[in-house]
Amino acid sequence: MESSEKTAWLSILTNVLLVGIKTAVALISGSLAVTADAIHSLSDVVSSAIILIGIKISGRPARGFPYGLYKVENLVAMVTSFLIFFAGYEIIKAVFIESSRPLPTQLPLSIAGIGLTILITWLFSRYELKKGRETGSPSLVADAQHIWTDMLSSLVILVALLGSAFGFAIDKYAAVIVVVFIARSASAILLDSVRVLLDASLDHGSLTRIREIVLADPRVAEINNIWARNAGRYKFVELDLILRVREFEKGHRLSEEIENRVKMEIAQVDRVLIHFQPQQRDLLTFGIPLAEDRISISDHFGEAPFFRLLSLQRKEGEIIDERLLKNPYLHEEKAKGIKVANWLLENGLDVLISHNDQSGKGPGFVLGNGGAEILITKETNFEKAWEMVQREQRKKGAMV
CA 150, CA 144: separation in Å to the nearest integer? Predict the structure, then answer.
């Protein structure tokens, strides 16, 4: 039995215990108010049972519902919000509409019994609210708020008894304050349930976190759009991405990696659907590691003092941007090659021109995962190597 089902069973048992305590106090003291509160708690037993049934139904697969029955929990939460509104109405009715009730014969016993029920409902409502948030169950959160309103209802009765014992009629003032809190709680649950049932988007914080997770991968060039919604306690995410990949198989593998990361970082994500397309770039950026003279090609990738980046127009083959950058990780002691590779990808590197093949090494994995290619050259002079690369690119038709 999962945590949400256990908590729902505890809710039923708690309400049964409250019915027992209130009934015993009502029989001994003869308090009509406590008797009415006991009947109200009996209806709460039915409400908690409905929530348990809703949790069980929402977890079952259904052939006619390919996205699951998760929203059953939101329907249950919406029904619970109406029960909370009704509890507020009962308080107003008891205090302002119904005729005054005689004091119980055993006032201290009534106060003690009601005080005990207030303590039980307060403790369990906090516990259930915590479990509801941990599991993401909207029905448990709604039930916790419902039990919290029962605590407020009992508190009004306690205030009325204490006030009457000292000759003060303060129950009306207490009732107004309590009903305001009840209406606020019920409205929040109702609006949240309606939003989910109408497939409203996830909250801004969750969407921002998903965006951060996706863009943390250097192979993701751009996010066209993000769609995400709730269904019960679960979340459904849909992404439209532009990836720095040229092969469909690599794009598919990258999509699976991104899906796993989102599920690991965001709680209760049921499904991540990713649409992707390769990046169509007008520019092609080449990078060349240079020695101290800024002309010779460096034999060492991570220890190259400078990198020259040249951006070409794909069709015309014209250089539209040329930069000479200092290696910011030149004096790093560990993993400088990997850091340099990530830095070059951040600067838009598409092709690395190098003396050494980085395949099988850390920088090679980083560049490959980022969609960058590596061209090997024997030339030691930057200008000669660049002329060779331009000739090869023209032969391949890359700059036609």
Answer: 10
One domain, residues 233 and 370: no
The domain that holds 258 is classified in CATH as 3.30.70.1350
**Is 242 in contact with 257 (CB distance < 8 Å)?**
no
DSSP-based three-state secondary structure for 360: coil
Question: Where in the sequence is the domain holding 379, given as residue range(s)?
Answer: 283-396
Cα 46–chain centre separation: 32
The side-by-side arrangement of strands in the sheet containing 234-243 is 220-231, 234-243, 269-278
| Cα-based distances in Å from 169 to 54, 177, 182, 302, 354 | 42, 15, 22, 82, 89
Angstrom distances, CA of residue 306 to CA of 39, 138, 292, 303, 345: 81, 56, 7, 9, 15
Eight-class DSSP state of 97: I
What's the CA angle centered on 287, arms 324 and 355, to 5 degrees? 115
- Calpha distance 21→31 (Å, rounded): 13
Residue 379: Cβ within 10 Å count = 16
Helix boundaries (H) for the chain? 3-29, 32-58, 72-92, 107-135, 138-165, 171-197, 204-215, 248-265, 336-346, 362-369, 382-396
- Are 222 and 192 in a shared domain? no
Both 241 and 335 in one domain: the answer is no
What's the rounded Cα separation, in Å, for the pair 59 and 323? Answer: 57
Residue with the two structure tokens 């990530």: 342
Give the Cβ contact number of residue 362 at 10 Å.
15
Terminal Cα-to-Cα distance of the chain (whole angstroms): 65
Cα–Cα distance, 370 to 254 (Å, whole number) = 10
Report pLDDT digits (tens) over 12-30.
Answer: 898 899 888 888 887 876 6
Give every residue of the chain whose pLDDT is below 70, as ranges: 1, 29-34, 36, 39-40, 61-62, 66, 91, 94-95, 98-106, 164-175, 178, 280-282, 314-317, 392-400
Q: What's the CA gap between 47 and 146, in Å, rounded? A: 9
DSSP 118-146: HHHHHHHHHHHHHHHHHHT-HHHHHHHHH
Instruction: Specify the amino acid at residue 10.
Output: L
Domain count, the chain: 3
Which of 168, 197, 226 is at the close of a domain? Answer: 197
Are 218 and 364 contained in the same domain? no
